[in-house]
Amino acid sequence: MFKEILRLHRDRVFSYALYYLRDRDDAEDVTQDAFLRLWQKRREVDPQRTEAWLVRVAHNLCIDRTRRLKTVRKRLGNPDQRIVADIPATGGGSAPDHRLQRDQTRAVLLEAMAGLKEETRSALIMHYFQGLKLDEVADILGKKTSTVKVQLHRARRALRRVLDPGDDMTPAMKRETV
Amino acid sequence: MRRDESVCRRIETQLAGYAAGDLDPREIVEVERHLVTCPDCRGELASEIALRETLATLPLVPCPARVSENIMAAVEASDDGRDGDRRLVVFPAWRRAIGGLAAAAAVIALLVAAPWRDRPDGTEFAAADALTEQEIMNARRDIRQTLVLAIRIIEESERKTVSEVFGRRLPGAIDKSVKAITTSLEGGQG
Asked: What is the mean pLDDT of each run of 10 residues along chain B (190 residues)?
């Protein structure tokens, strides 16, 4: 039973930690710790909400780890670049040119995500990548749903600024500057 | 129609939820009513959908098999047929590093100690006899790597944990490694 839960959710938890921490070893440790906590709390966790529970724990572990590693990374250099190499290549099925363009966009996107505030990045990964609902993201982050909506809006704006440098303002912002 | 900036701002924050089908019916009506009259916010929605599609290309990264194996090993070790609430064994990076650190330290100890020891036939025992040049180079490389790791351990771990590791576990591990290598060398030459 636990093995099945592990099989079902391990890639999502690992991916969350990897996209958040941008370090494979740290992501492995977080994944391990999250599942071991699930094992210890398995009688208390609602089976319908196992994934959200795991993401919440992984998120908290990521925060702890980020705080502890901040000084180390300053000293040893930021290993953020490694994540691009850690992410599997795009599968076949599309033209090489298209694949290359997509991979380049992905690299830029990852770089842009790295520049977001931690909480905004979390909301972005949880909602867009993990597919969690807004109220689930809010619950995990301990915020109001309306706050999460604003964070996602900011994330969209920040990412658009990087992906499309010529268009860095929302329509409302543009109108304000006129 | 004159645009209401405050409405646009509010609608913009709703677009992620709207595109995900994650708004309540009242909010959906409000967004759609606004979109009909506001081309800018329709453009913003297109941008939201484009971002959603781009982010969807980020792949799920497969969790390495060793992580699952570690988890299951810890779970099985803790499951003694009762509730399995015994403390689980965890394998963080710093604990995995102890073996390497102990081995490197043992090599240092050997390099220092070896020249003063005698062979059974009375001739002097030199470090060069025990370790090839390649082994010494490897040891130096390991030492460099483990020193970097040691810095990480110190920075990452709580003071208490570090004190426990460096105060008790590591000296014990080094002692064991030195004894094992010394015994092996003596046995091989006897």
From this structure: 76 92 91 93 90 83 92 80 49 55 60 50 52 67 65 56 58 66 58
Q: What is the pLDDT of residues A126-139, one digit of tens each?
A: 998 888 899 999 99
Listed in sequence order, the residues at least 6 apart from A33 whose beta carbon sits closer than 8 Å to its beta carbon are A57, A61, B90, B92
Q: How far is A140 from chain B (nearest CA, A)?
A: 17
What residues contact residue B157 under an 8 Å CB cut-off, 6+ apart? Answer: B94, B165
**H helix or E strand, kind and range, residue B32:** helix B25-37
What residues in A contact B84, CB-CB < 8 Å?
39
A70 close to B (CB below 8 A): no
Q: Is residue B134 part of a domain?
A: yes
B38 by Cβ neighbours in 10 Å (0-12 / 13-18 / 19+) ranks as: buried
Could B75 and A36 be called an inter-chain contact, meaning their C-beta atoms sit closer than 8 Å?
yes
Which residues between 102 and 161 in chain A have a beta carbon less than 8 angstroms from any beta carbon of chain B?
A: 102, 105-106, 109-110, 124, 127-129, 133-134, 146, 149-150, 152-153, 156, 159-160
Q: What is the ipTM of this complex?
A: 0.75
List the domain boundaries for chain A: 1-87, 91-178
* A91-178 is a CATH 1.10.10.10 domain: yes
In this prediction the pTM is 0.62
Residues A66-100 pLDDT 10s: 887 665 555 555 544 455 555 665 555 556 666 67
